[in-house]
């Protein structure tokens, strides 16, 4: 990026723009090379303006939520990384239907899903307990159709507000949303700005008991003491889960450098200290090859791998 473009960003976003920002600071894996520029955005207008500008100047851009499903390669990200901050963390109880049982709660895309889950829990609103242990933002959770214990974002979503590829802010109702397993299909170049969720009034104590039980099960089954990105591979459509296949292939504890297949949950890869993306990717490839040769099943990554190999040329 030339100095004029850097100045445009600096003048516009001041202390909210960071050049050569290490992405390991913004992913739960604690891995990732530098982004040419990272900008934290506070309003719909700012998102619109910066994306319009990036288009004119030919810079690629991407949105990062809590970075809990991202593996950023060691060479980092060329172009702009956009994070939705302050103006996108508002939670509002927007309306309820006549029966007084169903309550609509809207939340900005930058809101932590856990915070939204606690908001619902404290008010005796059922539907979001599954989300309490997922370290996502609302935007990232919608995009990934995050879920646990048989419930997912698609089950509670009423509508979302997006900035579409034409630069228009539009609301998409549930019937038009194409959710599938760990995926929401949106027109390319869309940014989720807000989500609206339909929750049900219920007894708060029962809800709290359920939440505690879910958290207990999560602690029992998931390795949470080292950085990771949750489940690395998507579960195959039928038969054994990805975790069961990896375990049966004898890969629990298998390492490449400082990246390790968890001994607790085989579908987690952990950064045991100073792992780089190349190690994680090499480990993922090994796991895929072993599972393919033993079970003839092709494991597809759930984690999104972004960025450049270490020697890629920088744009900015
Ligand atoms: C310990 C641990 C446990 C986990 N448990 C679960 C679990 O139980 N269930 C589950 O489903 N997942 C789980 N995950 C994975 C992860 O939390 C989810 O995939 C989550 O939905 C990612 O949200 P995020 O905000 O971190 O998104 P990111 O990882 O930051 O981004 C994911 C994708 O969404 C896009 N995106 C993010 N925000 C927006 C936006 N506003 N508009 C458009 N695109 C956007 C990004 O560009 C990227 O492509 C776990 C992860 C960890 C580390």
Tell me what you see in this structure.
With 316 residues, this protein is of the alpha+beta class. The protein folds into 3 domains: 3-87, Uridine Diphospho-n-acetylenolpyruvylglucosamine Reductase, domain 2; 90-221, 2-Layer Sandwich (Uridine Diphospho-n-acetylenolpyruvylglucosamine Reductase, domain 3); 242-300, Uridine Diphospho-n-acetylenolpyruvylglucosamine Reductase, domain 1 (Alpha-Beta Complex). It has 8 helices and 19 strands. It has helices at 3-13, 44-57, 113-122, 138-144, 153-156, 204-221, 242-248, 277-295; strands at residues 17-22, 34-41, 61-64, 70-72, 77-84, 91-96, 102-108, 125-126, 147-148, 151-152, 157-163, 169-173, 178-180, 183-185, 191-201, 255-256, 259-261, 269-271, 304-306. Strands 6, 7, 8, 11, 12 and 15 form a 6-stranded antiparallel β-sheet that branches. Strands 1-2-5-3 form a 4-stranded mixed β-sheet. A hairpin with a 2-residue loop joins strand 9 and strand 10. The longest helix is centred in the last third of the chain and has 19 residues, at 277-295. The radius of gyration is 20 Å and the shape is globular. The protein starts with a helix and ends in a 10-residue tail after the last strand. The relative contact order is 0.15. The mean pLDDT is 95. Bound molecules: flavin-adenine dinucleotide (FAD).
Secondary structure: elements and pairs:
Elements: H1 3-13, E1 17-22, E2 34-41, H2 44-57, E3 61-64, E4 70-72, E5 77-84, E6 91-96, E7 102-108, H3 113-122, E8 125-126, H4 138-144, E9 147-148, E10 151-152, H5 153-156, E11 157-163, E12 169-173, E13 178-180, E14 183-185, E15 191-201, H6 204-221, H7 242-248, E16 255-256, E17 259-261, E18 269-271, H8 277-295, E19 304-306
Parallel strand pairs: 2-5, 3-5, 4-19
Antiparallel strand pairs: 1-2, 6-7, 7-15, 8-15, 9-10, 11-12, 11-15, 13-14, 16-17, 17-18
The structure holds flavin-adenine dinucleotide (FAD).
């Amino acid at each position: 990026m030339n100095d004029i473009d850097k100045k445009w960003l600096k003048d516009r976003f001041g202390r909210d723009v960071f050049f050569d920002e290490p992405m390991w600071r913004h992913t739960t894996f604690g891995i990732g090379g530098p982004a040419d520029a990272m900008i934290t955005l506070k309003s719909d207008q700012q998102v619109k303006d910066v994306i319009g500008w990036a288009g004119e100047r030919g810079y690629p851009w991407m949105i990062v939520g809590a970075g809990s499903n991202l593996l950023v390669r060691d060479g980092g990200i060329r172009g702009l990384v956009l994070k939705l901050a302050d103006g996108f963390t508002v939670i509002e109880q927007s309306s309820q239907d006549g029966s007084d049982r169903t309550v609509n709660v809207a939340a900005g895309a930058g809101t932590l899903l856990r915070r939204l889950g606690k908001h619902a829990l404290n008010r005796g609103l059922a539907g979001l307990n599954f989300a309490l242990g997922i370290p996502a933002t609302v935007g990232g959770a919608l995009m990934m159709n995050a879920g646990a214990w048989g419930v997912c974002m698609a089950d509670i979503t009423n509508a979302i507000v997006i900035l579409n590829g034409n630069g228009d802010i539009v609301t998409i109702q549930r019937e038009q949303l194409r959710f599938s397993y760990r995926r929401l299909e949106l027109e390319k170049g869309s940014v989720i700005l807000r989500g609206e969720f339909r929750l049900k009034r219920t007894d708060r104590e029962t809800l709290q008991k359920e939440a505690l039980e879910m958290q207990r099960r999560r602690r029992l089954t998931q390795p949470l003491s080292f950085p990771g990105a949750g489940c690395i591979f998507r579960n195959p459509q039928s038969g054994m889960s990805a975790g069961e296949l990896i375990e049966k292939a004898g890969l629990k504890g298998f390492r490449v450098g400082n990246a390790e297949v968890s001994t607790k949950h085989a579908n987690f890869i952990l950064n045991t200290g100073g792992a780089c993306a190349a190690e994680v990717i090499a480990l993922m490839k090994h796991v895929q090859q072993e599972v393919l040769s033993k079970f003839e099943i092709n494991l597809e990554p759930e984690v999104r791998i972004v960025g450049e190999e270490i020697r890629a040329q920088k744009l900015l």
